[in-house]
């Protein structure tokens, strides 16, 4: 196992252990409360049952809120051209409305083991991490338009993304942050984690 993958898994397991320890502590406190007669068992069961139902409802709502059922509208409205930001970039060939669903991030889908076998140092410029079990590698220039979008700080970017981490349609959806004019380059904020993983300085416009 690559050293970086081992570190990632160790950090993740530590976080999970902390959550488990917290649950055990709460359970122990409740047991003491029941044993001492301070807490009403029937009331506690009712509260936990309601919290469970509410938690499940929130999880389902959040999952569905990230699902994208619309057809992408940006695929036929963009082209790759030389960029003044870095290398080549993605440019609008037609006006794009604010809020339009542009396209998904396309590429080869990898699990965590496959990702770290391919990129042992984690330095992958065209990989979108959707969750611990899914990485989308857009390294192939023919993988899709999203891999050509250059970085811009959040205040200047005209595109944003949402990651669908749950459900059968896990992906990374891109949207127009504002109205985009024909000829304008599409940009989005790659985020601090991206640049930290590459040990690189963010490209500035």
Describe this structure in words.
This protein is of the alpha+beta class. It has 2 domains: 3-65; 75-198, Beta Complex (Beta-clip-like), CATH 2.170.270. Helices cover 35% and strands 20% of the residues. It is built from 4 helices and 10 strands; from the N terminus they run H-H-E-E-E-E-H-E-E-E-E-E-E-H. The strands form 4 sheets. The protein has a 3-stranded antiparallel β-sheet with strand order 3-9-8, with no helix packed on it. The protein is elongated. The mean pLDDT is 83.
Count the strands?
A: 10
Specify Rg, calculated over alpha carbons: 22 Å
CATH topology of the largest domain: Beta-clip-like
Shape: elongated
Strand content: 15-25%
Distance between the termini: 38 Å
What share of residues is helical?
A: 25-40%
Q: Tell me the structural class.
A: alpha+beta
CATH architecture of the largest domain: Beta Complex
């Amino acid at each position: 196992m690559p050293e970086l993958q081992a570190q990632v898994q160790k950090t993740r397991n530590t976080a999970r252990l902390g959550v488990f320890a917290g649950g055990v502590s709460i359970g122990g406190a409740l047991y003491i409360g029941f044993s001492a007669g301070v807490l009403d068992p029937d009331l506690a069961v009712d509260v936990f049952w309601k919290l469970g139902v509410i938690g499940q409802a929130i999880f389902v709502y959040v999952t569905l809120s990230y699902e994208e059922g619309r057809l992408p509208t940006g695929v036929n409205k963009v082209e790759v051209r030389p960029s003044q930001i870095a290398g080549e970039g993605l440019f609008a060939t037609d006006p794009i409305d604010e809020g339009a669903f542009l396209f998904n991030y396309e590429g080869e889908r990898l699990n965590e083991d496959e990702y770290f076998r391919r990129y042992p140092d984690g330095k992958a410029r065209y990989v979108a991490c959707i969750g611990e079990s899914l990485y989308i590698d857009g390294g192939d220039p023919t993988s899709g338009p999203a891999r050509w979008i250059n970085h811009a700080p959040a205040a200047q970017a005209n595109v944003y993304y949402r990651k669908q981490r749950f459900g059968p349609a896990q992906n990374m959806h891109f949207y127009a942050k504002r109205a985009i004019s024909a000829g304008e380059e599409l940009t989005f904020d790659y985020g601090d984690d991206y640049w930290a993983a590459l040990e690189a300085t963010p490209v500035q416009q």
